[in-house]
Write a structure and sequence with these properties.
single chain; 291 residues; mainly beta; twelve-stranded antiparallel β-barrel; four-stranded antiparallel sheet; 19 strands; globular
């Protein structure tokens, strides 16, 4: 199901019987008690914008409900950006129903703006953010769908001039139902950001609401195909109490494929295309390994 490709490293499931005809993505949610899972991913995002201006940050999705936000150049015409985000994640099974996890992301971005005032270009590389969280399974998948939830806290977030700690949190829930060999799922999450200092300014990044229904199909015991729709609403960022831009909604189509080398060792690739505007496209590859 899309729970693995879209929720890589975020949700825990109770130990399910190994079944070759069920999507491997359900099995990937399992973090056995006392076991570790290594979660590595690389995301690439490209976007074109008209009327780019300050307060319209570039956002790259690095997981089902994880995003890296970067400031953009100031301009009034056409902007183009390329952003790459590498993420290192580690998960640990506390019990058969709970796990803790942490992740660290680094970025490399290039932004280009062309307007009446000429051409501007910038690039930036380095640390992006670090998060820690916990996943818990409230209910198994039986006559009714399984229910899982998570909560996570930003340990450190890079800003334009400084960094902030413990200023952003995210809460979410996922429900899924496996009907061999298809899995239906729905994820809802909300990310809340508090005010923080960035140099001489007081900044409050926009809050984010995410809704994601999806379905996956096990082609065979190694390959899983996934598709889903993701809807988001992000409130405007505020600087010194003044809104920068507008609250924005977006709808994205997400397609993916997963390949299982063996149990506990899977490679997943997903493609996200903005279907409601000029949000650009993103390509993400992740590798999950149990040890």
């Amino acid at each position: 199901m899309f729970l693995r490709i879209l929720i890589a490293g975020l949700f825990l499931s109770v130990v399910l019987p190994a079944r070759a005809d069920l999507p491997m993505t359900v099995e990937d949610l399992i973090t056995d008690k006392g076991k570790f899972k290594l979660d590595l991913s690389l995301a690439y995002a490209n976007a074109n914008r008209q009327g780019v201006f300050a307060g319209e940050p570039i956002t790259v999705q690095t997981g089902a409900t994880s995003f890296v936000t970067l400031p953009s150049l100031v301009g009034e015409s056409t902007g183009n950006s390329d952003t790459r985000v590498a993420t290192f994640g580690l998960r640990y099974g506390l019990t058969s129903k709970a796990e803790i996890y942490t992740r660290l992301s680094g970025t490399h971005s290039q932004q280009r703006i062309s307007g009446a005032g000429g051409f501007a270009k910038s690039s930036d590389s380095g640390f992006a953010d670090a998060w820690a969280g916990v996943n818990y399974q409230f209910k198994k998948d039986d006559e009714t769908p399984a229910v899982l939830g998570f909560a996570e806290l930003a340990l450190r977030e890079k800003q334009s001039n400084t960094s902030a700690s413990f200023k952003s949190t995210m809460l979410g829930v996922t429900a899924y139902k496996a009907i061999d060999p298809v899995v239906f799922s729905f994820t809802g999450a909300y990310r809340f950001s508090q005010h923080r200092q960035d140099g001489a300014q007081t900044v409050k990044p926009g809050n984010l609401l995410l809704l994601n229904p999806s379905v996956s199909f096990a082609v065979n015991d190694r390959v899983t195909l996934t598709t889903g729709v993701q809807w988001t609403r992000r409130t405007a960022e505020r600087i010194d109490g003044q809104a920068q831009g507008l609250a924005r909604t977006g709808t994205d189509l997400i397609l993916g494929v997963g390949y299982g080398f063996d149990k506990g060792n899977t490679l997943n690739t997903s493609f996200k295309l903005n279907a409601s505007g000029q949000g650009g496209a993103e390509l993400r590859t992740s590798w999950l390994y149990t040890f």
